[in-house]
């Protein structure tokens, strides 16, 4: 019935010969396409197999709508496919179960690809690829890890090839990092490859040094909280944590504005303390002592301002936190003369 509705609404789905030339630029057009997109979520069949057929047919019909329309209408197809895949997980005893799920993933991936090549979109496809990776990570396919890897790799390709603005890239890195923290079934080799790419991307020279430092303080969590198929829990790679934070410190040291450098040093101190308190044994008191000493030297050079006052208060709160922590790690408080 829903598919019949889709065909009935043909005038909303493809360009008409008598439509105004500026139709795609009007608010009415946008409202109509949002309604069509909502219609996708009404497609319901009695069985999962029939549901997939309906979604696949709807995808073909909507995909013929052109680059303007599919910006609105194809993403719901992908989300409905993901819902169907998770529903299929409960039907493992069905004949050709794995083959059916692979076809659904292929359909989803092809639909996302159309948003890139035809609709010339980037941020939405990246998010859909990441969502696909998280769905694949929950599906007990014999090769689910390779599907997860492909989805993440495609998201990284969008990041590298389709995003040009620094802010877009920073937001994308945050999303990719969050997704990598959610998945846990990638083999170590594949996981390390992807995380290495993410860390390199975080320190890209196209970013301002402040953004590089902030982003590296975020992605470093992958080496501590991330999980692989073999890790049986978080990887807890303290050596890599220290390596990334030392690089972040080096980048922060190259900032010429004292106030920005002070902000970054305090950010790194907070990050170091977090992992230090979480028993990252590779982080030493010397690292904290050195950075705290540099913040004290920097504080003398800062002009009087509300921003400088805020940093001073933040640093004071950090020192108070260390004092409260001294009962657990008295050697740190002693080294810092607190």
UniProtKB/TrEMBL annotation:
Keywords annotated in UniProt: Membrane, Protein transport, Transport
Topology class, membrane: Peripheral membrane protein
Keyword Ribosomal protein belongs to the record: no
Cellular component terms per the entry's GO annotation: cytosol; late endosome; retromer, cargo-selective complex
InterPro entries: Vps35, Vps35_C
Any one biological process term the GO annotation gives: retrograde transport, endosome to Golgi
Compartment list: Membrane
Family from the record: Belongs to the VPS35 family.
Protein known as: Uncharacterized protein
